[in-house]
Specification:
25% of the residues lie in helices and 24% in strands. By secondary structure, the protein is α+β, with helices and mostly antiparallel strands. Strand 6 and strand 7 form a beta hairpin. Helix 4 crosses helix 7 and helix 6 packs across helix 7. It binds a DNA duplex through helix 6.
Length: 269
DNA sequence: GACAACCTGACC
DNA sequence: GGTCAGGTTGTC
């Protein structure tokens, strides 16, 4: 489900709604969603949430006890706020209760994970330490240098979180369409000018998607359970066989790096 | 690189 | 029955 814009939407929602709240209770429904040691109930009761932060596609929930809860939603994870005492949805694995509300973590496929780490050690966690620069923060020069050195399809390089963090299958396809670059094109063989354009297109697509509160293709919902609207603006993702909005050619679907890749064979080279 | 693995559900 | 799905990791 979530790539950078969806995770950013959730983090902003949570910061607006529950930063500063005190934890009143925890319900550990599915212990296996915890990657490491499960925090004892006593260590979390009465602890305050300082703020939420996004790192790549990870959600960091910084707490007043010098610890941080890290959440990765993978494909079908959801983080939502609910009224108190309502029956949790199917596949809900963790509930954190506050005065007046509950934070629910659910995940149909259970690929997602939750981790509890000391705040000063967050950056040392293996899954965080390996992340490349954030897709919205990376400079054009750094972007070009990184991409130029990869001898693989541009799409594979963009999906690699150790190169750039935050892009996933939807937004790589959309950004490559905006930049007129074929996803299978070797990264090292793309000109500096076109990489500059791609860097700009990535920023534009991500910003627009954040403004639209993310893409809801099947599972994504924001912090209050509502769908985003950027799926209505997809130009190629999920449009196999439909007409390109620019030239009318049928959108093609190929597999790159094991992922469905959608592109216009006429507009993208 | 390609592929299987981790899971459940939707759709043909 | 088979295929596919916003992600990542580990294996040949």
């Amino acid at each position: 489900m979530p790539e950078l814009p969806e995770v950013e939407t959730i983090v902003r929602d949570m910061n607006g709604e529950i930063s500063g709240s005190r934890i009143e209770n925890i319900e550990y429904i599915t212990p296996s969603v915890w990657r490491g040691k499960i925090p004892g109930r006593k260590s979390l009761i009465a602890v305050r949430i300082i703020e939420f932060q996004r790192l790549g596609k990870h959600i960091l929930m910084h707490l007043s006890n010098n610890h941080t809860i890290v959440i990765h939603l993978k494909m079908t994870g959801r983080l939502t706020l609910q009224g108190p005492g309502l029956k949790p949805a199917r596949h809900t694995h963790l509930i954190i209760e506050f005065n007046g509300g509950e934070l629910h973590f659910s995940d149909i496929r259970r690929f997602g994970f939750i981790d509890y780490v000391k705040t000063p050690e967050v950056m040392d966690a293996r899954y965080i330490a390996c992340l490349g620069s954030d897709a919205l923060k990376i400079s054009a020069n750094e972007f070009i240098a990184l991409i130029k050195s990869r001898n693989r399809p541009i799409k594979a390089a963009l999906l690699d979180q150790t190169v750039i963090a935050g892009l996933g299958n939807i937004y790589t396809d959309e950004a490559l369409f905006q930049a007129n670059i074929k996803p299978s094109r070797k990264a090292s063989k793309i000109s500096q000018t076109r990489l500059m354009a791609l860097h700009r297109c990535i920023r534009i697509v991500l910003r627009r998607a954040i403004s639209a509160r993310g893409s809801s293709v099947s599972d994504f919902v924001d912090g209050s359970g509502k769908k985003g609207t950027y799926q209505n603006h997809h130009k190629v993702y999920g449009r196999t066989g439909e007409m390109c909005f620019n030239c009318g050619t049928n959108i093609k679907r190929i597999i790159i790096a094991g992922r469905s890749s959608h592109y216009c064979p006429r507009c993208q080279r």
